[in-house]
Amino acid sequence: MFQNNKIILVLPCYNEEKGLLEIFNKKPALIDEVIVVDNNSTDGTADIARRFGAKVLFIKEKGYGLACRNGISRQSPDGIIVMMDGDNSYPVSEIEKLLNFMEKNNYDFLSGCRFPLTDKKAMPLIKRLSNGFISHLIRILFSIKLIDSQSGMLVFKGRLLKEILSFNPGMGFSQEIKIKAWTNPNIRSGEFNIKYSVRSGEVKFRSLQDGIKVLCDLFIFRIKTI
Is residue 184 a contact partner of residue 164, using CB atoms and an 8 Å limit? Predict the structure, then answer.
């Protein structure tokens, strides 16, 4: 619990048994519930999650956005949702810092900002460049000051779900949920600098193919909002 709010940690996962072990071993006590969304993994992701007392949701159709949406859309509007990737690249141990920053600044939605990187080995140069380019476009297209549009670590109040939930089934989910929050005048949104680490396990993101798809999704989303 945090300030009488239930804290729910949602972890979208595809073959993340190594990352999950690290996350559960460092998970802060204030987290009340962990939801692991198993996106048709072929390793021991689900077994490890259950071993540590997490609730497992199984989503057969693959897609980052599908996993995220299924994990967060079922949560109570009274709690605070923390979403992060299950690969141990995001700092689960810093969740309390984000919650304190969120409370202090009266934010409804908070995104973890990975830049400037504390460890440049954690993100390949091509991914840094594509992230910077897409984030720059988002700032221009939507007139918002979002630095890290592709961050996978989010903290937000459950009551926002109806207003910000994205239906993008792929990697574009991350940017769309942020854009919806940041452009909504009734939602106070911000960013908090976090440590980003080398992921545990196999890299799933395909820099060229996924980067192009995220860029195309961005322009489609912008056209829909005009």
Answer: yes
Query: What strand order describes the sheet that includes 55-58?
Result: 55-58, 33-38, 7-13, 80-83, 154-157, 109-113, 189-193
List of domains in the chain: 7-225 (3.90.550.10)
Confidence of residue 194 (pLDDT cuts 50, 70, 90): very high
Q: Any idea what the Cα angle at residue 52 is, between residues 49 and 56, rounded to 5°?
A: 30
The two structure tokens encoding residue 70: 């299924």
Backbone torsions φ then ψ of 96, nearest 5 degrees: -60, -35
**Short-list 52, 64, 59, 17, CA closest to 38:** 59
CA distance 87 to 18: 7
- Which tokens go with 127? 């991914």
pLDDT in tens, 113-145: 999 999 999 999 989 999 999 999 999 999 999
How far lies 53's CA from each of 1, 9, 130, 173, in Å?
Answer: 17, 12, 37, 27
For 209-226, the pLDDT digits (tens) are 788 899 999 999 999 997
- Cα diameter, the chain: 47
Rg (CA), the chain: 16
Residue of 136, 142, 137, 99 lying closest to 115 (CA atoms):
136
